[in-house]
Amino acid sequence: GKHGIHLHTVGQCKAPDFSSAGGHWNPMHKMHGLESPQGAHMGDLPNLDVDAKGKGKLEALIHGATLDSGAMGLLDSDGTALVVHAAPDDNRTDPSGNSGGRMACGVVTAR
User: Which of 12, 13, 98, 102 is deepest in the core (most CB within 10 A)?
Assistant: First the structure.
């Protein structure tokens, strides 16, 4: 099914609830949701569609983001996490699109 997926402000994924990842990455201080008339968080991504075998794929372009440590960088001093939520993101409700609890987390790194 569909799951909300967002970039979060801290590159930490401590189980069981992944709250260590902080809130959504929002360096431009916008409202939540890709359908928000005030503009979305930079960390808001389209819903991830996962099949019955637990596999999914998402490709998204984040305009203005960089892979460095600057103000728009995903690799700043405390890093960035990618968090998958339990429910779909409604793409408009602040702060997290009613996307439910955090069920998976990964830290963004450079190779």
Answer: 102
- Which letter does DSSP use for residue 106 in this model? E
> How many residues are given for the chain?
111
Greatest Cα pair distance, the chain, in angstroms, is 39
- Please state the φ and ψ torsions of residue 107, each to the nearest 5 degrees: -95, 135
- For 22-50, give one letter per residue: b (16+ CB within 10 A) or e: bebbbbeebbbbbebeeebbbbbbebbeb
Can you name the residues that pair with 82 across neighbouring β-strands? 7, 106
What is the per-residue pLDDT across 63-76, written as a single tens digit (0 to 9) for each? 999 998 888 999 99
What's the chain's average pLDDT?
Answer: 93
Tell me how far apart the alpha carbons of residues 4 and 107 are, in angstroms, rounded to a whole number: 17
Check: CB of residue 21 under 8 Å from CB of residue 7: no
Predicted TM-score (pTM) of the model is 0.92
Per the rule left: phi > 0, alpha: psi between -120 and 50, beta: everything else, 79 is left
Bridge partner list, 105? 83
